[in-house]
Please model this.
Amino acid sequence: MSFLEVSRVTYNLSGFSLGELSFTQEEGVKIAFAGETGSGKTTILKLIGGLLQPDSGSITLHNQLVQGPAEKLVPGHEQIAYLSQFFELPKFLRVEQVLQYASAMSEPALNRIIRICEIDHLLERKTDQLSGGERQRIALARLLVTGPELLLLDEPFSNLDSMHRIQMKYVLERVSDQLGITSILVSHDSGDTLPWADFIFVLQDGQLVQQGRPEQIYRKPVNAYAASLFGKYNLFPIDAQSPDQQVFLRPDDLVFTDSADAEFTGTVNRISFNGPHYEVHVETDRGLITVTSAKPAFKTGDRVKMSVLPERVHFM
Model:
């Protein structure tokens, strides 16, 4: 028996249509939905959480039906927690009051969640005296103290600055590792999904176009849309006689070389520093190719050669 089962679910509203969606999730497996804005990510989370009513199909948790608003007076499911990206908290209460009113746990268990969410120092503050990152961690803690089995994360990093994004990611890792809570995350940012998820679903216009493990999704996308969600890439025809079959390469699938057998030769157009690496843009007879390099030993205008890592070649 699966922990969560989504079976042939559809949903239509105001011109948006979610195609028939089916998948299962085992307990402890972290699933992410990736897609551009409007692709249906948040809709899926709200359907799973019982906040929207599917037009057809069913959603079960532990083989029990998750009821939607048409079947239940108060929307939602007591074992499923939905974390909105808007940091929803009661106003003018102290943080400790917010948690105590929501808690279904013993004091030691409550204190453990407070430590995991890194909000010990915020307990005496009122909710209107907090930064965005602090409000998000408190909103998360408020859900966790209800003892959910499934945590739904709706763009949990989208409104956070870089420092608070990093902190929130560490908190969510501990929620999985220390509390053992099964989670589903939606995001359009590959930096959120690739390092976090065990399994990724790619949505395009309400349709599931690809599913697989993060490295598979990153290295072998099914189309240019799926490729673009997870970073920069190079895409060009195999040859003039086969314009419909294309070679797909990420920038780190190529290396600079002095070998006479190099697949590409070109002129360096631009070099940009990106922190962990440089991005080198090279004009070739196949068009502009982007390659990552630890520290390039050449400059703009130089002629360079590039070889492809053979195990990385993907045809699209």
Observations:
- The radius of gyration is 23 Å.
- The longest strand covers residues 4-13.
